[in-house]
Amino acid sequence: MVTHYETILVFGGTGQQGGAVAHALRAKGWPVRALVRDINSDKAKALAAAGVQLFAGNLADTRAIEAAMAGAYGVFSVQPSSGQGPAHGVTDQDEILYGKTIADIAAAQDVRHFVYSSSNAAGPAKTGMGHFDTKREIEAHIRSLDIPSTIIRPSAFMEILMLPGMGLDRGTFSFFMQPDRPMQFIAVEDIGRITAGIFADPAALIGKTMEIAGDTVTGNQLADKFSHAAGRSISYHRFPESLLAENAFLGGLARLVDDGRLAGHADINKLHKQFPGLLSMDQWLAGAGKPLLLAAIQSQAAGVALR
Predict the structure, then answer these.
(1) Looking at domain 8-158+187-212, which CATH architecture does it have?
(2) pLDDT (tens digit, 9 = 90+) per residue, 9-38?
(3) What are the Cα distances from residue 69, in Å, to 3, 16, 100, 172, 200?
(4) pTM of the model
């Protein structure tokens, strides 16, 4: 185990995963840097207040990346996903370029531990969905480099269940799995907890590719858990087949849940022993997830794309 903490550069520090990683590392005593587009944004200022050293730049600016990474012991690499859509301005080609460029710079600068956050759908075979196959290509590139690396493949985020348009405002909940089929989920904060644990134990985890999740639940179990947390009855239904047939993106996600790739295969019992404190769905709903659940129930979801 590492006992002398050296600097880690975190990408995506103002986003969900990078923010969780930066805060988890700082809580353990690691010096942390973050590359941010706007050092004067509220999220960037919050990072600085937590003791994170900020570097201004973006993922297309190789000089800024090189400057931020100079002398760093480790790197946490995550890119904006092309699956977020055109509004975020990231294409499949952009995501691949950013992921490969960060890894190349890390190899050139002799970074001693490189952690890349991928997806549990990024396996040996292509999925046919760009934002998963981008990550598969980035993974392969990282493995081709002479750099000590660990690849994590998170399951679906618990937070995604609280997006508007899932029906919670109408006392029901719709998602991709069949009511009695299990799917794995992880709280975003646990991606930070696991990543901090990976950097602390390089001897055991360098060279590993790990699916990570905190809990496995069926659709019907989600309804029961949401009902208990909200204090009102909530039922579960898979997205209508008509919607999945007419919307290629949603239909593709449902296909990957059905064939198991997005449903997840993480060894959750092992992960809970290896990284103590990982949250179950019930624990998340009793804590950080509860206000998100109540807000989703109270929201007006008209016009949301997933509806």
Answers:
(1) 3-Layer(aba) Sandwich (3.40)
(2) 999 999 999 999 999 999 999 999 999 999
(3) 21, 21, 15, 47, 19
(4) 0.94
